[in-house]
Amino acid sequence: MLETDHFLDIDDLATDELHAVLDRAAAIKAGEDDTELPDHTLGMLFEKPSTRTRISFETGMTQLGGHAIFLGPDDIQLGHGEPLSDTSRVLSRYVDAVMARLFDHEDLLEIAEYSDVPVVNGLTDDAHPCQTLADLLTIQEAFGGFEDVQAAWVGDGNNVGQSFVIGAAMVGLDLTVATPDGYGMSEDVLDQAEAIGHPPTVVDDPAEAVADADVVYTDVWISMGQEDQREEKLAAFEGYQVNEELLSDSDAQVMHCLPAHRGEEITHDVLESDRALVWDQAENRLHAQKGLLVELLDA
Ligand code: CP
Ligand code: NVA
Asked: Where in the cell is it found (predicted)?
C-alpha cells in the first residue's frame, strides 16, 4: 500500500516505497509474484506518440488479468474541446487507474486533482517517472544494487533526465550530469535532489562525466514538441554525443530510454555494442510498471 494517491513524479514515492516497487517488479519479472488485477481497467490518455509506454502498460494490464484502453488525442472529446477536468471526472467513474502522456505537466496535475482514481505520469515535458523505475530496476539488476555505482547523464537536461536525477538521489546512486549551457536540469530538480541529500555533480564536460562512470545514460536532444528548436539544439549539443571516442578509456555500460536518434545523441556502434543495456531497460518498463500498478492499486 502506497501513501500517495498518484504517481506524478518519482518522489511521490517515499524512498522505502520506491525500493518496494523495484523489489516487487523484480519478483514479478522472476515469476515469484503472481498478483493479479482482475476486472481492473487502466485508461491511457496520449497527447504524444509512444511505443514502449503504450505497449508495456497495455501488455502489463493484460498479463495482470486486467485491461487497458488506449485514448489518443482524436479518439475522445478531450481533443474536441471537452475540458481536462470533465474528462478526468468522467474517466474515473469508469476505470480503476489513469495513465497520461501529456505535454504540459500542469495538465497532469489538473487531471490528478479531478480524479478519484490513481493517476500515473506516462511522460510530460518535465518528468518521466515510469522510465526512472525501469532505469533503476535495470541498474539494480546489472550492478546488484546502487552502492558504489557511478552513473553519468550526458546530454539534455530533459524530462527523462530530471526524473532520473531525483530517483538517483533517492536510492543513493552517485551521478554526474554533463549538459550544455542553457540545457541543464531545472534548478527545482537540482534543489529536490539536494534536499533528498544526494545531489548530482554537475559539469560541462562529457569526458569528465564519463571518466569514472560504470554506466552512461543519454536521451534524445530534441524531445517531442521541440522540433522547432532543432537547429539551435543540434549546435548547442555538439561534443555531447555518446560515441566510442567519448568511451575510449571506459568500460561503462550505456543506457538510453529509446527511441534513439542514431548519429545525434548516440552512435549506431555504441547502441549495437555489448555496452548497451537499452533492450533490458526497455523490457523493464513492463515489469516496473506492473510492480507500480499492483502497489498503487493495493493488490
Ligand atoms: N521510453 C519511452 O517512453 O518510449 P516511448 O516514447 O516509445 O513510450
Ligand atoms: N525526452 C524524450 C523521451 C521520449 C521517451 C521526449 O520527451 O521526447
From this structure: Cytoplasm
